Amino acid sequence: MEKLRKPNNGFLYAASLEKKFLSGAKYSAISLKDYYPDAHITLFTIKEWVTDDLYDIFDNVIFEDVPNNKRAKLWALSRTPYDTTVYLDADTEIQHEDICLLFDQFKNDADIMITKIRPYSGKISEFRGGNLTDHCGVFVYKKNDRTMQFMEEWYDRYLKQDSGEWQWDTELYPEKLRPWDQWTYWWIQNKTNYAIKREFLDDDARWNFINTYREDETDKPIVVYHHTIRI
Amino acid sequence: MENREIKHPFWADEEKTKIICQFHYASGEVMEASVMDTDEGNPDWAEIIETFGIEGIDKSTEKYAKEQKKIRAQQNAETKERIETDEAGILFAAKLDAFEIAEVKASKDRTMKARIRKAANFMEVTVLTSILVMKEMDNGETKKTK
Predict the structure, then answer these.
(1) How far apart are alpha carbons A22 and A162 in whole angstroms?
(2) Which residues contact residue A54 at a Cβ distance below 8 angstroms, ignoring those fewer than 6 apart?
(3) ipTM of the complex in this document
(4) Given an 8 Å threshold on Cβ–Cβ distance, is B114 in contact with A95?
(5) A196, A77 in Cβ contact below 8 A?
(6) Does A231 sit within 8 Å of B93, measured CB to CB?
(7) Does the distance separating the beta carbons of B95 and A56 come in below 8 Å?
(8) B99 and A26 in contact by Cβ < 8 A?
(9) Distance (Å, rounded) from C-alpha A9 to C-alpha B7?
(10) Which of A94, A228, B78, B107 gives 20 to 30 Å between its CA and that of B117?
(11) Whole-number Å distance between alpha carbons of A188 and A37
């Protein structure tokens, strides 16, 4: 009898550079396990921080070659062990059982399902050359060739952005965008052939409720609460 | 007449006896000056009144006051936001620390863990964490004695 292939879904965290991000990822993953005990969770972190207790929380800890820079997240995305991955920032917290439904939210053959930025909540979202629409702190993505290429390009371009090697027209895109990976994402989606098909999650605020959001952003229980503070 | 231009005058007092303005010199240097009239007659004062007129200085004073009010409001809002962010950061750090405690991390008491996560202040985090740790230690002892 042919063995049915089990859907390979899981959650991904990345923690590097400062140990507080590891504490944050653990905190978030414990909350995830509280509401979804069967969740598969992978942590990407640096070798020096790997301790036995991490395996009590994470099923999978990847540390080989993980770069110790502030965007190890982007490096990790293309190396996900899952067919469908939920990426969660380390300063998130799961607050509801519906978290298990996140994998079922794909629509219109999207490669990535994401939430919208609220301009009143973000520090930078609008500029002469366009406006950032997608919040890159929580998203679900599929492992297919174009999405993996996108993720690799995201990391490569971010390194050039951060080092200053990538220069852009600052009349259209202010220099203050430089630290943000959301800007790299916007550029790749809007200005390159690496773009992937993106859809927004329905009732998106409950899947990534930023701590500065207005309470009326959703009338359903919040699933992912996002602290977005300096941890 | 000196080789300079007077700009942005406004009244420094309600009695309109003092004017603050800027002297822009040809060299590019800008000096802020406080100008008062004198018994002998201050030529700078006379020049300002002649150039801008009393009404003109009234208007620029009003404009300056509005700008200052806006700047102060913005500074206050930024300070408030910074304080709130710092406080929220300290509270969140306390919660992270709580979940580094072995008993809390391993606890199956989802309700208590959720209460710690939702704690609104440092004291609440401390008290709830203590209760959970004691409960877990007690459970551990109970299991051992069985």
Answers:
(1) 22
(2) A26, A43, A45, A61
(3) 0.77
(4) yes
(5) no
(6) yes
(7) no
(8) yes
(9) 67
(10) B78
(11) 36
Q: Which residue has the higher pLDDT, B143 or B110?
A: B110
SS3 readout for A142-168:
ECCHHHHHHHHHHHHHHHHHHHCCCCC
Q: Beta partners for A92?
A: A226
Q: Give residues with Cβ within 8 angstroms of A152, minimum separation 6.
A: A78
Query: Which residue of A30, A49, A53, A226 to mutate against B (max B Cβ within 10 Å)?
Result: A30
**Which residues of chain B are within 8 Å of residue A230 when distances are taken between CB atoms?**
85, 89
Q: Which amino acid is at B110?
A: R
| Residue located via tokens 């822009």 | B24
Q: What is the average pLDDT across B91-103? A: 93
Angle between helices B110-118 and B122-145 (to 10 degrees): 160
- What are the chain A neighbours of B103 within 8 Å (beta carbons)? none
**Domain map of chain A by residue range?**
9-226
A231 shares contact with chain B (CB less than 8 Å): yes
Domain A9-226, CATH among 3.30.460.80, 1.10.10.10, 3.90.550.10, 3.30.40.230? 3.90.550.10
Inter-chain residue contact B100 with A231, CB threshold 8 Å: no
Show Cβ contacts of residue B128 under 8 Å, excluding neighbours closer than 6 positions: B112, B115, B116, B119
